[in-house]
Every structure is written in structure tokens, then in C-alpha cells.
Amino acid sequence: MQKFPITAEGLARLEDELRVLRAEERPAVIRAIAEARAHGDLSENAEYHAARERQSFIEGRIAELESVIPSSEVIDVAKMAGDQVRFGATVTIVDEESEDEKTYRIIGAYEADMKKNSISISSPLARALLGKGVGDTVEVPAPGGARSVEITKVAYN
After folding, report:
1. CB atoms within 10 A of CB 7
2. pTM strictly above 0.90
3. Which of 7, 112, 137, 138 could form a disulfide with 120 if both were Cys (CB 3.0 to 4.6 A apart)?
4. Which residues contact 29 (CB under 8 A, 6 or more apart)?
5. Is the pLDDT of residue 45 over 90?
6. Do residues 102 and 149 both lie within one domain?
7. In this structure, are 98 and 114 located in the same domain?
8. Which residue has the higher pLDDT, 156 or 22?
9. pLDDT tens for each residue of 122-151
């Protein structure tokens, strides 16, 4: 069985999502389907089709979470330290061409969120940064061509 690295917070969020899907979302969509069925002809019933689509999404997400959660390997980032980039690191990089500075936290694929500047350990950027340290210049594959970035800070928090 393949193990997925994850932080304790990320695992807790996945478990909460699974609990909500099972206890709240699933029963709600079942009620919506029953209500839509009561309206009669299902072939032209948009409410019924929308509810069935939602049910399909919910059941698929439940199945995914039921597979991922037992396969998760919790890594305690609080116990980590050092100056090399590893899982759980918060890394500040500077694009050598544009001088743009960005900070990312490298975490598991199932908890990554670009809105929160957290990237998956399996992303091209994270893979390029792994094992490197402050002052290292790294070539990162990008859609517009490879970019050079310099690591200016590595922290574990």
C-alpha cells in the first residue's frame, strides 16, 4: 500500500470533511433526490438530475477519502529542523529574473492549497527544491520554460 505524507492538521481536515460528507451532505442529497422524485417525470426534472450529480460527487469524494485517510503517514513538522528543504518546510525563494519573492510550505498532495501558498511535495517546484538549502540556485520547470530561483530561507514551523 502506498503511503501519502501528510501533516496532522491536514489529516484532521480530511477526517472532518469525511465526517461532514457522511453525516450531513449524504443525507441531504438523499432527501433532495426523494423530493425531486415526488415532482413526477424524471426525464425533464432538472432538480433530480442536479441532485443525482451532487450525489455522485459526494459518493466519489467519500470513496477517495476512505482510501486516502488509512494510507496517510502523519509527519510531525514541529519536530523537524535544519536548513535543507524537506516535507513540511516553509521555503522562501526569489526568482532570479524578475526578483519576485515567494514563500511556500511543502506539504502532502491531499492538503496542498495554492491560496494558502502550500504546495504538494510531488509538484515540480517542490521536487526541484527538495534536498537543497539556503543560497542554492535551482532550475524549476515552468510552462513558459525553466526558471531559476534562489532559496533565501528554509524554516520548519
Report:
1. 21
2. no
3. 112
4. 51, 54, 55, 58
5. no
6. yes
7. yes
8. 22
9. 999 999 999 999 999 999 988 888 889 999
Residue 98, domain extent: 77-156
User: What CATH code is carried by the domain that includes residue 27?
Assistant: 1.10.287.180
CB 1 within 8 A of CB 71: yes
Q: Are residues 53 and 91 in the same domain?
A: no
Among residues 57, 74, 91, the one where a domain terminates is 74
Hey, what amino acid is at 51?
A: A
Exposed e or buried b per residue across 137-153, where buried means at least 16 C-beta atoms within 10 angstroms of its C-beta: ebebeeeeeebebbbee
> 101 with 123, same domain?
yes
